[in-house]
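Appendix B, example 12.
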Amino acid sequence: MKIKALIIVIAVLLFVLYHSVYVVDETNQVILTQFGKVIGEAKTEPGLQFKFPFIQKPNFFPKNLLEWDGTPGEIPTQDKTYIWVDTFARWKIVDPLRFFKTVYNENGAQSRLDDILDSEVRNKITSHSLIETVRKSNRALDTFDVEDLGDEARVIGQIGLGRQKIVTGIMNNAKPKLADFGIELVDLKIKRLNYTEQVQKSVYSRMIAERKQIAEKFRSEGQGEARKIEGNQEKELKRITSEAYKTAQEVMGKADAEATRIYAEAYNKDVELYSFLKSMDVYKKTLDKDSTLVLSTDSDFLKYLKGSNAN
């Protein structure tokens, strides 16, 4: 019986001891409460801690960075352009005692973050133009050369503040408000910006019109260049044809002159033969079976048709 009682006493002591200690690791910080009221200071150093069993409760809060993912929402910019804005942030609990007293747990903190950060994001974006929200520097963009399109070309304006400074302004406004809840806002970023569906259609239509205008400009320039090339080609073709005709005529003229010279030299050697051949050519061209000639008997035209003793 004594041994059994001793075992029971040891078991009870171990049970009480088990519920009298708790461990704070490197990633946690603890607030100790008794019947819902805070007892002492926050335990932020890692190690073994003691409490009254059953009546005191350790409340653990993370030390590491925590996530906040904003709800994407439709926000109008200063120039009345509606955009979808999606943001995210990183935060941590730096004052667990204040955190516990004000928001109690992470769910309560997320609710406060939603209220404060969403409000600050909306206020900042509605106070600035779209170009300020989208761009963070005046770096030159790689776009089509539209200098010659006149007033119809869309001109990208210069920014005075930029997205990065807008985000910094949101953080500067939100940090003091979150500090009242024991929260430190570590970082905030705009994850995504996009036009609303209605604005998207308008923007795409304008982009299509601009590209068509640019394409028409290039097409017009190309057609003008094509006409210029065709004109030069036609001019060159006429020049080549004219020079070729001139050269051909010169060659033919020289050939005819050479032929005439050769004929003249040949015929001058025998005038009677020349007269006979020419007369034969004339007979061939003018006389056939249906031809009728009325000539005097002493006509020179028929002297070669007369007998050899006609003279």
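Residues 66-195 form a domain with the Tetrahydropterin Synthase; Chain A fold (CATH 3.30.479.30). The first helix runs from residue 2 to 18.
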